[in-house]
């Protein structure tokens, strides 16, 4: 494959690997420690949020988010949770795993995302306790309006920003700052990589505290001394010895390690320039895409900075999708389905969820969409190969 989804594991790969090797040799400790804590600070500062809680994957971050909300009594078994119909499996799997009911909210095929009109339509037939919105492929919905609707309907708003790190809306700023908390993924093919890794950013200190309990076994070791004192007093834990193995609430082991903390710190430095490159590539390829009458364009007027995750293509029919996927493959450009398509059609969904909704937007994306990679390292020659594949045949 000439142009795989992702060309390399890291920005400045050779130097990063060498520095990682040096770090491993000299680090006094490799389990979660100072590098992770510093990365949390630096990443949450980049996002402009109070707290960052680092995890071993984006999927783990999503799982922890729902466990934390249940531990805090803000969600309970049987609650109906809206989620974007165009998303990733481990976005909504925790909803099922933790005993709640996922309710699909359609996406708009022109923006690839849930728009306020999609949410209003769902709320007209179903009352939701929360909305877990995915900012898909670096695009996003009208999140300012969606935030207002959630507020008016007393619903929690949570964001899965695993595919849109760096995107900024004209109204309201960076994606991942509209809800009570937002998740991020640092898996290799994402905007920045720690090989495996994830984060939750939040301005809510109560969420952050519970997320740290959920992340590590349900204990209090990663809390501040004042927070530890509060938990220990509440449960009559009288000594440091006893506190070592006191488990206050439900949790998992979803901890990152110092190698990933080190990588996060080194890769974060390249993020702003990489986001610009992703947008430049997208806009360059979009011109060719819009000149092809077999293909549909996307609306991104409401987006100030488009941190495109992968380059999406929407064909005017299923037959044309088949044709263009084959053209891409023959040109050596890796093509993939548009994330999980209409996720209600996935085998796991049918096994566990009985209530299905009409989702014309997600169906269109499922049947007629695909994407190829857009990484900052694409060179002129590679961008021209993709542009050629996008031309009318
Ligand atoms: C929207 C979305 N959410 C969650 C995830 C899970 O992230 P991870 O692979 O780090 O577990 C992904 C992964 O690609 C994703 O695209």
Describe the structure.
- By secondary structure, the chain is an alpha/beta fold.
- Helix content is 42%, strand content 15%.
- The protein has helices spanning 13-26, 34-47, 58-71, 89-97, 116-125, 143-152, 205-215, 225-234, 240-244, 258-268, 271-290, 318-330, 347-352, 360-368, 380-390, and strands at residues 51-55, 80-84, 101-105, 130-134, 156-160, 168-169, 173-174, 181-185, 198-202, 295-296, 303-305, 310-315, 335-337, 369-373.
- Strand 4, helix 6 and strand 5 form a beta-alpha-beta unit.
- Helix 2 (34-47) packs parallel to helix 10 (258-268) and helix 11 (271-290) runs parallel beside helix 15.
- Pyridoxal-5'-phosphate is lined by residues 57-59, 62, 87-88, 90-91, 134, 160, 162-163, 185, 187, 198.
Helix content range: 40-55%
Mean pLDDT: 98
| First-last Cα distance | 21 Å
Q: Give me the Rg, rounded.
A: 21 Å
């Amino acid at each position: 494959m000439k142009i795989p989804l992702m060309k390399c594991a890291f920005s400045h790969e050779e130097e990063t690997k060498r520095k990682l090797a040096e770090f491993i040799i000299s680090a006094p400790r490799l389990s979660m420690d100072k590098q992770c804590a510093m990365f949390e600070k630096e990443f949450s500062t980049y996002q402009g949020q109070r707290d960052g809680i680092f995890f071993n994957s984006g999927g783990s971050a999503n799982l922890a988010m729902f466990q934390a909300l249940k531990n805090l009594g803000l969600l309970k078994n049987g609650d109906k949770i809206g989620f974007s119909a165009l998303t990733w499996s481990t976005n909504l799997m925790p909803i099922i795993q933790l005993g709640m009911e996922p309710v699909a909210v359609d996406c708009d095929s022109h923006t690839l995302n849930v728009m306020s009109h999609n949410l209003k339509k769902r709320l007209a037939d179903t009352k939701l306790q929360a909305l877990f919105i995915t900012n898909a492929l670096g695009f996003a919905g009208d999140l300012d309006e969606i935030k207002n609707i959630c507020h008016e309907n007393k619903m929690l708003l949570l964001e899965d920003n695993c595919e849109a790190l760096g995107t900024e809306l004209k109204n309201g700023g960076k994606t991942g700052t509209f809800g009570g908390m937002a998740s991020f993924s640092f898996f290799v093919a994402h905007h920045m990589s720690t090989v495996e890794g994830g984060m939750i950013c939040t301005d809510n200190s109560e969420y952050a505290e519970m997320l740290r309990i959920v992340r590590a076994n349900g204990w209090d070791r990663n809390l501040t001394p004042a927070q530890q004192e509060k938990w220990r007093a509440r449960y009559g834990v009288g000594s440091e010895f006893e506190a070592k193995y006191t488990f206050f609430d439900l949790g998992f082991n979803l901890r990152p390690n110092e190698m990933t903390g080190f990588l996060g710190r080194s890769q974060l430095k390249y993020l702003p320039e990489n986001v610009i490159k992703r947008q430049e590539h997208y806009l360059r390829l979009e011109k060719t895409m819009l000149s092809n009458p077999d293909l549909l364009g996307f609306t991104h007027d409401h987006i100030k900075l488009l941190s495109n995750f992968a380059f999406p293509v929407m064909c005017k029919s299923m037959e044309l999708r088949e044709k263009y996927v084959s053209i891409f493959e023959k040109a050596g450009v890796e093509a993939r389905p548009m994330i999980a398509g209409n996720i209600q059609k996935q085998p796991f969904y049918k096994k566990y969820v009985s209530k299905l909704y009409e989702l014309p937007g997600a169906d269109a994306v499922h049947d007629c969409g695909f994407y190829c990679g857009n990484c900052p390292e694409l060179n002129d020659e590679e961008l021209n190969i993709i542009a050629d594949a996008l031309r009318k045949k």
